[in-house]
Design goal:
By secondary structure, this protein is of the alpha+beta class. Helix content is 65%, strand content 11%. The protein has 6 helices and 4 strands, in the order ββαααβαααβ. It has a 4-stranded antiparallel beta sheet. A hairpin with a 7-residue loop joins strand 1 and strand 2. The protein is globular and about 60 Å long. It starts with 6 loop residues before the first strand and ends with a strand.
Length: 194
């Protein structure tokens, strides 16, 4: 099934090097792989702060007292703070690229990007605030309200329902594979030419 090609994207970093290119709607596989890559990067970054602490706890069976154990504690705390700085740096890099290029690191690797439906870059507001933060907050509020009314199962059901709805929409070619958060932000994810 051939996908529609109704979008023109602007490519370039500065105002003087912007050029229009014809793009196609990104496939579901590319979007899923980009999301999985982002999750992998996040997992690896989050793993760093805890490796030293976990090693310390396993080595000393949770006891702290001798000089060697104090060194282990210092090492563990240092790895925690270095890891925390890594998480912050990773977050800043993701926000920067999503704002500037409409691409997370996973999207960069998969050569896809987010555009407004009129072809413009959605920038920080469209890509980060609306697509990521506002969508997550909206789902969390709805899930919390349902959770208060019917319990944790209702909250979990809303989160699962939002995930499944977006997953199904990824495969709807006639709707340009636009998910609920794409509709909320008036965006579309496109495949960049090689």
């Amino acid at each position: 099934m051939e996908e529609r090609n109704n979008y023109i994207g602007a490519v370039g970093v500065g105002r003087s090097d912007i050029q229009e290119i014809e793009v196609t709607v990104a496939g579901a596989g590319d979007r899923i792989l980009a999301a999985l890559l982002n999750q992998l990067f996040t997992f690896l970054i989050l793993l760093v702060p805890f490796v030293g602490l976990i090693a310390l706890v396993i080595k000393n069976e949770g006891r702290i007292g001798s000089g060697e154990e104090m060194f282990g504690l210092l090492f563990g705390m240092t790895s925690f703070w270095v890891g925390l700085a890594g998480i912050l740096a990773y977050t800043v890099v993701q926000i920067y690229y999503m704002s500037r290029d409409g691409q997370s690191l996973g999207k960069k690797i998969m050569r896809i990007r987010v555009l407004k439906t009129d072809g413009r870059n959605p920038g920080f507001v469209g890509t980060v605030l609306v697509r990521e933060i506002a969508w997550s907050v909206l789902v969390a509020i709805i899930a919390a309200v349902i959770g208060l009314a019917v319990g944790d199962n209702g909250e979990n059901a809303i989160n699962l329902l939002a995930f499944l709805a977006n997953f199904v929409l990824l495969f709807m070619v006639k709707r340009d594979r636009r998910t609920l958060y794409d509709m909320m932000a008036d965006t579309v994810v496109v495949k960049l030419p090689k």
